[in-house]
Known about the structure:
single chain; five-stranded mixed sheet; 5 strands
Amino acid sequence: MNALSHLRRAVRRHAHLADVAIALAVFAATVLTTFAGHDVAAVGNGTVAIVSAVLACGALAGRRRRPLAVLLVSAVAAEAFLAATGGTRGVLILLAPLIALYTVADLVERRRSLSIGGGVLAALAMAHAPLLHPALLGPQTLAFIALGGLAIAAGDSTRNRRAYLTEVEQRAERAEREREQDARRRIAKERLRIARDLHDAVGHQLALISVQSNVAGQALDRDTAAAREALAHVKSASRKALGELRDTVGLLRQPGEAVAPVAIPAPGLDAIEELLTSLRASGLDIDCRIDGPVVPLAPAADLTAYRVIQESLTNVCKHSRRRKARLALSYGLHELHITVDDLGGASTAGGSDPGAAAVPVGGHGIVGMRERVLALGGHFAADARPERAFQVAAVLPYQPLALLPEPTS
């Protein structure tokens, strides 16, 4: 089996040399069976026979490049050879047109190859039937027709198999490309998710550290107690930031390495009070209002709502000079409305407050919030207001936990 496989690979690599070898083999078999033990000149018209055999067999060397022309030349030359030798000894010359029939059925379009091959086979049978047997449909003629049909069928089968293998290879290549594209999409999605988590979790704590460090620096000389309290907040925020960063990095470790958490605990609206307490401790004045009966949300909506509130209030803490914000949660029938207003730039009687907060631009926070909300089919807006410095508004369609389908066992 290995030797046969090596032979097939060698034939595919050197196809034209294989065709020359086939032509020489058919020519040698024809000459030996026709002229063995006889003088060439004594067997019919020997010169015409040799020339016809050379043409019929030699044409096979180019059968892959010009299959139809090779079939025509080999068929005519084979008939000329049979006519020159009397048709009694040189029947092996018919191997040349039979091989050419196989090649046409293999390489030419199916309908065309079958029609041409069938016509040439019928013409050859009619042409040399009188030479091989007195009867039109003698046994030798019927055998030749059967061999011709077998050659056409074999060529057609080879062409079909090659087309099938080509299609299988193309499908495999397409599947491989799709797998690679899907893997790249998954990697990009996971990278974006990690970036969001780092920005929302660690970024929030780092913002608090920055604010409290500034407070501590300003109060260090004139108010030691306030400076000490600010530094305590810095310590607490640093510890939380390190813990969240460690959990996130732990997800990126390979299995079998140091123990890492399976998943980072996802905060939700039940952690809002802790968030507000932390921000108020950093000096942010927050007015929180909740309208409507509180509805427990599905995990995705719960996490997204928390991240929008966290990022919006953190932006107020970082950018607003007066550090004053209003948070409004309105539970509707099918959706949750979240509004965060930066009141640090509220208008005064004399016009716009010079301490108005700057609009946060150039960062990834607003982009991340918008992506999270839109991923759930919600609406998101973040822009400056005439009467306020900045407003973030999000509408989240939610699915109450009571309506979630029961897990199947």
